[in-house]
Amino acid sequence: MSISQLARSIVDSPTLRLNEEARLLRERGLPVIHLGIGEPKNKAPINAILSAANKLNSGDVKYTPTDGTPALKKAIIKYTEDNYNRIVAPENVIVTNGAKQSLFNVIYSLVDPQDEVIILAPYWVSYPEMVKMVYGVPIIVTPKDGTFYPRMEDILEAVSSYTKAIIVNNPNNPSGMVFPPEFIGELVEFCESKGIYLIMDDIYHRLVFDGTKAVPGYQFTDNDIESTKVIVINGVSKIYGMTGFRIGWVIMNRRMVEVMTNVQAQMTSCPATILQSAAEGALNGLQSYVESLRLTIENNRNVIMQELRSFNGIRVPEPQGTFYCLPDFRAYQENSVELADFLLKKALVVAVPGIEFGIEGHLRLSFSGTVKDITEGIARMKWAIDPESPREIYIGDRKMIRDWL
Ligand code: PLP
């Protein structure tokens, strides 16, 4: 079989792989708890459903403009004005199949072979792979002091004449950290002065807790949309819990939007028509929906923190956003892949190994599910690895006795 070198170099998505493993185990009737998944349990907003249903009922479901329908773009422009305090033109917006395609499209359109893209660890699993997919070089900057974001000095050390862009995900998947405004300010100022693009992946920006704000990069630049180096990526997947609708977008200068539109035209023609209508419905509909989702997730965050605080030896900075936390399990096991495998086998709990996000010894746990799953999942983990926890537990309706500690 002849597989290209490039295709061979791309690893699979560990989170999607774990989803599949969990699905197969559940199909066998096993009571798996999935703390790996990155999507809330909510139903899609009613305005999204009605808007999609109207479009479908019309029977008029054809190609749309490659860069998105004028109506959805209008809704995105209003969203940008309301949430970023920036007025942008339709020519500054391209709608894509999920924020994932937004990111890929930006990277594809910016990065030449050998160009470097700086990625801050812990990072979302797809960033390095996407950079490699265009023959670019991902440069990972890891925090040196055990925190979840590198210091500006460390980032500056990683910059070279090949640096094309820096990717920042705020709030951060997988740590749940919100970057301090001063840090974002410094990054924006640096990037603008050096002509380096700052790709801000804002996909979780309204899922923040305790009154924290994930400040937009735009706040720190007076440059207009045509000249700023700040690129905004966003979408409906996380904030509206509409992961399956696959709608995201990029806000950027006109020339780059034109280029990305050409790229997208050759790849996918346009995002699906009905799903664009759904996203339009969500953006134009009642925004209290986002707040109620946020409150549910904040409550889940409180529950998981309470459970983890009573877990002997585990260190976990409190997430200020997203629906993930990244506890340090090194007190039990340094190798996060082995630990995740062990937990799946013994306790039927899915957790994602930290090494996939560039941080070994940690596990990413999602609190986007139910409170019951969170409490039961952590109880099972304690049972599996903490010798001081009770030796007996019920997993489903089976009583299990720990005989390995
Ligand atoms: N960016 C980050 C940080 C994510 O966690 C995800 C999804 O998990 C995405 C982008 C992709 O979002 P979408 O589902 O809209 O493609």
Topology of helices and strands:
Layout: H1 5-9, H2 14-27, E1 33-34, H3 46-58, H4 70-84, E2 93-97, H5 98-110, E3 116-120, H6 126-133, E4 137-141, H7 152-158, E5 163-169, H8 181-194, E6 197-201, E7 230-235, E8 247-251, H9 254-267, H10 273-284, H11 288-309, E9 324-325, H12 336-347, E10 349-350, E11 352-353, E12 363-366, H13 371-385, E13 392-395, E14 398-401
Parallel strand pairs: 1-10, 3-4, 3-5, 5-6, 6-7
Antiparallel strand pairs: 2-8, 7-8, 9-12, 11-12, 13-14
Helix pairs in contact: 3-10, 4-10, 5-6, 5-9, 11-13, 12-13
The structure holds pyridoxal-5'-phosphate (PLP).
Pyridoxal-5'-phosphate is lined by residues 38, 98-100, 124, 169, 173, 201, 203, 235, 237, 243, 248.
| CATH topology category name of the largest domain | Aspartate Aminotransferase, domain 2
Helix content: 40-55%
Strand order of the largest sheet: 2-8-7-6-5-3-4
Distance between the termini: 46 Å
Mean pLDDT: 95
CATH class of the largest domain: Alpha Beta
Please characterize this protein's 3D structure:
The mean pLDDT is 95. The protein has two domains: 5-43 and 289-401, Alpha-Beta Complex (Aspartate Aminotransferase, domain 1); 46-284, 3-Layer(aba) Sandwich (Aspartate Aminotransferase, domain 2), CATH 3.40.640.10. α3 (46-58) runs antiparallel to α10 (273-284), α4 (70-84) packs parallel to α10 and α12 packs across α13. It has helices at 5-9, 14-27, 46-58, 70-84, 98-110, 126-133, 152-158, 181-194, 254-267, 273-284, 288-309, 336-347, 371-385; strands at 33-34, 93-97, 116-120, 137-141, 163-169, 197-201, 230-235, 247-251, 324-325, 349-350, 352-353, 363-366, 392-395, 398-401. The strands form four sheets. A seven-stranded mixed β-sheet has the order 2-8-7-6-5-3-4, sandwiched between helices. It has a three-stranded antiparallel β-sheet with strand order 9-12-11. Strands 1-10 form a two-stranded parallel sheet. The radius of gyration is 22 Å and the shape is globular. The relative contact order is 0.16. It is α/β, with parallel strands linked by helices and 405 residues long. Bound molecules: pyridoxal-5'-phosphate. The site of pyridoxal-5'-phosphate has 13 residues, from α5.
